[in-house]
Q: What sequence folds into this?
């Protein structure tokens, strides 16, 4: 089996490592539009060969689109067109994007829709590029299959097997539920981290103080603020409506906190904190 | 040297472990007002003996006050009173609180002020109680000495040696600067985490979705929301003015983000993210 990976960054590169060493793919070819990253991916040995986009789509049995979500929407449709033209009925394309509804809409009526499996492997770090790729990134994490009933049973089964090799737990969901839930459990965390970094950088002009005083708690809360704009601008715009709804709830909660502190309302602060503590039941 | 620790939780308990095993203290006695925690601390062996408050102040050469900041303000003054009455001029008391200005004001005119060293060892986890105590908690972290010029040189030197044994980096600062800076690099992180937990718990009535979908990013951003109300209510009220100022800046930044997303202003979102990315220069 030849797997072709378009976008040799954190997700694509990490997939390449484990699909090869765990024997799912005999050959891994990769496409990378940034020439520095392409050269690095070759030198690191993430893939057997860095090839052109056309060659990748032609030679791979499974094409993994692991590029930011704006580009991915167009690319998946283009790849399905190429499958159709070539009469390549056995080939499969998947995406790995963090928002699913727009890509679902864009492909819904495509005659080769069955050959597309829309997935979101929920793993990552705040780093990007081929240098961020690592083995075992996906182990034990959830992989969402969006609108799985639109894929052919055979394509779906192959990709389920692929994620099983990556040790991921499959979760099946429609694309719009996915976008709503990820707004809550992923996208908002990034926005709150970005806002925290902006606040601290704005006020602490003397960066040495941040460096000296930053506790482990601050570092973990602000970690996601290192995340890449190329990835996050399209996620936040494509999932605009859900993200706005979450931000508005968040602003309400933050304002409740603010007012309780302003009023020296110790009981109010305590009750907000104890309510928030319920997260212990869910997150280890 | 006998060290007496009042409050055998995360901070006090972890200090007990390392001061004993690294040979700074020959004997460690402890005070714990919660009887379940006291019994646990004894069984875990955090201290050589759990004693009464009076015995602790009488027998210890150094008294470490490691209780929530509201209680600590009164307790440190009371301990200085007892030193004075007993003519115990060699004894030292320290606090370990996360806010420093009120305790500085409360002790400033005390005749035994020189015997008090006000410190903030900036280490911790989101857990509390004697079960949360652990070896090596303080290694490599910063310890702030607030208004060190008000302590006698001898008392200051002893406590510097004590924190050196705990492998902490000393930083000297006046109490009001401390409270301003920690509002930025510690207190606000807790408030943003509490608000995040409240938002997600409010919207995701079905907790299974949070559990299934929560990525590593969400977990690290929301981790501090497990923090204890007994500790955080007094910190947030004692440091009210600084915390409010930071929350207000934070609300502004969050609103800028919200508006850029609402307007599909991709350049605006990109520029906010890239600004926030500057945190990379400071936090590893």
A:
């Amino acid at each position: 089996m030849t797997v072709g990976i378009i976008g040799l960054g954190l997700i694509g590169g990490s997939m390449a490592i484990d699909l090869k060493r765990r024997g799912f793919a005999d050959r891994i070819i990769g496409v990378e539009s940034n020439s520095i990253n392409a050269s690095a991916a070759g030198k690191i040995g993430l893939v057997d060969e860095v090839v052109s986009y056309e060659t990748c789509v032609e030679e791979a049995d499974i094409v993994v689109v692991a590029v930011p979500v704006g580009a991915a929407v167009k690319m998946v449709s283009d790849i399905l067109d190429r499958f159709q033209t070539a009469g390549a009925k056995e080939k499969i394309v998947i995406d790995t994007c963090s928002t699913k509804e727009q890509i679902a809409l864009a492909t819904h009526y495509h005659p080769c829709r069955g050959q597309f499996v829309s997935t979101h492997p929920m793993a990552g770090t705040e780093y990007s590029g081929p240098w961020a790729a690592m083995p075992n990134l996906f182990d034990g994490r959830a992989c969402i299959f969006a609108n799985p009933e639109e894929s052919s049973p055979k394509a779906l089964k192959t990709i389920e097997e692929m994620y099983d090799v990556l040790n991921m737990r499959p979760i099946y969901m429609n694309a719009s539920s996915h976008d709503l839930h990820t707004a809550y459990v992923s996208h908002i965390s990034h926005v709150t981290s970005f806002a925290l970094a902006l606040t601290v950088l704005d006020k602490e002009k003397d960066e040495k103080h941040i460096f000296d005083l930053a506790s482990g708690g601050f570092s973990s809360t602000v970690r996601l603020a290192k995340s890449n704009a190329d990835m996050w601008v399209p996620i936040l715009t494509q999932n605009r409506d859900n993200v706005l709804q979450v931000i508005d709830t968040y602003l309400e909660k933050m304002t409740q906190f603010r007012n309780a502190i302003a009023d020296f309302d110790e009981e109010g602060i305590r009750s907000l904190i104890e309510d928030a503590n319920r997260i212990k039941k869910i997150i280890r």
